[in-house]
Amino acid sequence: MVKKKVLVLCTGNSARSQMLEAILTAKLGDRVHAESAGTLPAPEVHPLALRALEEIGIEHAGGTPRSVTDLLNRDFDVVITVCGHAKETCTVMPGVARKIHIGYPDPASAEGSDETRLEAFRKVRDSMVGWVGFVDAVMP
Fold first, then answer.
1. Rounded to whole angstroms, what are the CA distances from 46 to 20, 104, 140?
2. 22 tagged catalytic
3. How far apart, in whole angstroms, are the C-alpha atoms of residue 129 and residue 68?
4. Within-domain flag for 139
5. Sign of torsion, CA 63 36 89 67?
6. Which residue has better confidence, 98 or 30?
7. pTM of the prediction?
């Protein structure tokens, strides 16, 4: 079986897209090869994103956030945008069979105590875990 190639896009590639890449890999890794990128990549993956993933048993070594421009010459079966900025700025991706948008609030913008901020990451993470079955169902 050939794995479907999925690209997850957001602005900074530091939280939402990294989390969904890791969740897709953990839950659908036998059928999906997931990667992520950002339109304006941050310098590093947000530590609370990694912590939220670790809480559910997902180790993610996504590495340094990268730019979507580094991937424009690659073919993907599905591109998933997880923020409005990526949806608006990445309207054309050559070689893409299907585009899906599911907007998530940016957990990195949460304010308050570490626990309050971590809870924002947990909410996004849990929503993504619930959404993975839909992604699997709509793969081309």
1. 13, 16, 31
2. no
3. 24
4. no
5. positive
6. 30
7. 0.90
